[in-house]
Amino acid sequence: MNEFVLPMRVYYEDTDSGGVVYHANYLKFMERARTEWLRSQGFEQDALLKEQGLLFAVRSLRLDYLRPGRFNDWLKVHTHLLQCRKASLTFSQTVQRGEESALCQAEVKVACLDAQTFRPRPIPKLILAEITGGC
Asked: One of 14, 16, 64, 114 is an active-site residue; which one?
C-alpha cells in the first residue's frame, strides 16, 4: 500500500479563538491517520499490546506548517511509509485541504518498543511482511 488517505473535518474544538487549526492538532490528525493506516494493514494497536507486548511510539519528527486550516474545513491526511528498519518505521505525512497545496507536512519516525521495558525491539516479521509493500 503506497499511500493511505484519511479524510476528516475540522471541528471547533480543533481551532484557536480565531477559527484556525491549533498547531498541535495537526499532530493528532497525523496520529489518527497512522493508527488507521495500521488498522487497514490488519493490525490493531491494542491487540499488539495485549498479544505481543509491543507498542509503537513517535521517536522523532520534522514538521513544516505551510498554511492555516480553518474551522469546518474538510481535510485529507496522506500517509506514506518511507522506510522500514529493524525496529522503526518512517512516514511522510501531509495534511491537505481539497486539491490545494499542503497545509502541513511532516516526516515521522516511529519506534517499535517492548511494552514492559519501553526499550526498542524488532518489529515482528509478520507485521513487516504485511506492511513492507509500502517501503
From this structure: 16
Quote the pTM value.
0.93
Domain residue ranges in the chain:
4-134
pLDDT in tens, 102-133: 999 999 999 999 999 999 999 999 899 888 76
- Is residue 48 within 8 Å of residue 55, measured between CB atoms? yes
What digits encode the pLDDT tens for the residues 51-108? 999 999 999 999 999 999 999 999 999 999 999 999 999 999 999 998 888 999 999 9
Reduced to 3 DSSP states, what percent helix, strand and coil does the chain have, rounded to the nearest 5? 25, 40, 30
Is 73 known to be catalytic? no
**The domain 4-134 belongs to what CATH superfamily?**
Hotdog Thioesterase (3.10.129.10)
